[in-house]
Write a structure and sequence with these properties.
The protein is of the alpha+beta class and 331 residues long. The protein contains 14 helices and twelve strands.
Length: 331
Amino acid sequence: MDSILVEVTRGGRVESVHRGAVAVVDADGKIVFAKGDIDAAVFPRSAVKALQALPLVESGAADRLRLTDAELALVCSSHGGEPEHVAAAESMLRKAGQDVATLECGVHWPSLQAAALALAKSGGTATPLHNNCSGKHAGFICLACASGDDPTGYVRPEHKTMQRITAALSDVTQTVLDERNRGIDGCSIPTFAIPLRALALGFAKFGTGAGFHPDRAAAAVRIRAAVMEHPFMVGGTGRFDTEVMKAFGARVFAKTGAEGVYCAALPDLGLGIAIKCDDGAGRAAELATATMIERFLGDGVPARWKNPVLRNWNGIEVGTLRVASALRAHK
């Protein structure tokens, strides 16, 4: 059984718990810290967007289309649909000679409530550009177009672009990815169940370039630099990954997935982190990630993320989230 990672308190008592697993490994695959079943395969969903961005850069497509660092950061994002995010995705499509109609990610209103309200108040309506995955999808389209391929149907497993993306993810995580562990992501691309240990290894390699071909190692450096220069593009206002990367700079690359998944790279230490909360709770995954980052790098996570307070509709503090003993263990 997985470990209790986070406890939810009310009135001084534990009201609920979030179980899950945590893997921290180095670029050689050595386990540095582990709790729960780290060999269980999980769908990382959006947590692996930076790994999926590697072919766009290592192929030279990003240079051929003159993508900016802000646009490369957006490729790694699960953004809130703020105007800056929408503008960058639209710019990428123009550079590829395409428009919003080429996006196959689907439509939803901005996930940031303030952005959704502002859009509605202005008389606007949601488009695929507001989808939190529009940057990743614009990157796929850029890769296809710069490679001379028709982008139509790029979300399908058999499309040449998606095959390149899948091959890169397979190589980085050293995991066979095929129809046996394939599902469909919220944005319609394939998503693959990958052991947590392998995800942590992939992020350790992404943070160090260890074992990468020189072109891939250079691509990883460039992607991390772009994200460090533009952390807002990766999430947006009030988002955990944006705020943590602002706080730690180049020492941390962190990315949320979905259903309680979080992954991170600590480049200076050569470590990768992968976390899965069994019940899919993002609040627990964020606290667990904050705890693991500070375990290895020391203080620096903004207080709201490492000491979350629960309040009722009158603003009265009614409880807290706190890490359980499995994560409070001595270093």
